[in-house]
Amino acid sequence: MNINSNTPLILPGMVAGRRTKLLIDSGASLTLINLQFFLQLPHYYRQKAQSPPPNLCLQLADRSQLYVKYVLSLPITISNSTRGHRIYVVPKLWRSCIIGNDLIRKHNLQIDGGHQYAYFKSKKSAQLQQERKETINNDDNYVLIANERIIISPLHVFNIEVKPIKPFLITEDDEENEYEVTSIKEAPCVANDIITPRQHMTLQLADLTERTIIIYKNQPLVTMTRLNQTQLNMMQHGTISSATKQMTSTTDNELNLINTDLDEYQKEKIK
């Protein structure tokens, strides 16, 4: 591989959920990150790193060689769109991340140097579905934990930011990767909903008891379970049971309590 001194394009982006500056250089054959940035990645990704192929040779334009320590696949986000790609970890790389020609060609990255902009060109639906199968490897189940400490008064509702115990690929607005949310405990009650993995996740908690509830940071709150194909088909045809969303949020501050077991007094109190 050679790295030439072409005029680069530097854009903000993310690698495995970590924000950084991406140097987009079509003169670089491969996509690289340095060791310092690699060590900042979540353990979930770092543990997947492997040794590079023995015949791999990374050269600069002056033919000097760079040592490659690891190889791994990571999600890369450019202009709010994410693709999974193989990345090479170079300890002494002078940039945190260099986007090479391998990613540019494979994922059809369009570069507008005049406007300092780059984006992934959209593809046909069938091609996108195949690409998802190849690049998105989220698990079928996740546990979401509280990202902050809060106190919920009796018969009150509170919005809380949550995060997964282990990282997942961001698949916002991807109907092929939808999950059902279910409360771990009866109190607090979490509004059941269908969600997709995203960078910032907020759930609505309801204290349906007569006592104050304290939620601690990193406390497990809900499970995320991937919907199977039958459930997805039912949703697409509008035939999925409304019981799946017992407490769907109707507005930012209002709950639909029709399908809950509350009596009329409790419903009026929480509203």
In short:
The chain is mainly beta.
Distance between the termini: 63 Å
Mean pLDDT: 78
What does the overall shape look like? Answer: elongated
The first-level CATH class name of the largest domain: Mainly Beta
Total number of beta strands: 22
- The tally of domains stands at 2
Overall CATH architecture of the largest domain: Beta Barrel
Considering the protein shown, what is the CATH homologous superfamily of the largest domain?
Acid Proteases
Helical content class: 10-25%
**How many strands, which pairing sense, and closed or not: the largest β-sheet?**
7 strands, antiparallel
Order of helices and strands: EEEEHHEEEEEHEEHEEEEEEEEEHEEH
Q: Which stretches are poorly predicted, pLDDT < 50 over at least 5 residues?
A: 1-5, 236-261
Please give the order of strands in the largest beta sheet: 16-18-14-12-20-15-17
Ordered list of secondary-structure elements with their pairings:
Elements: E1 2-3, E2 9-15, E3 18-24, E4 32-34, H1 35-38, H2 43-46, E5 58-60, E6 65-66, E7 70-78, E8 81-90, E9 97-99, H3 101-106, E10 109-112, E11 117-120, H4 125-135, E12 141-146, E13 150-152, E14 156-164, E15 179-183, E16 189-190, E17 194-195, E18 201-207, E19 213-215, E20 220-226, H5 229-236, E21 249-251, E22 254-255, H6 264-270
Parallel strand pairs: 1-5, 3-9, 4-8
Antiparallel strand pairs: 2-3, 2-7, 4-9, 5-6, 7-8, 10-11, 12-14, 12-20, 13-19, 14-18, 15-17, 15-20, 16-18, 21-22
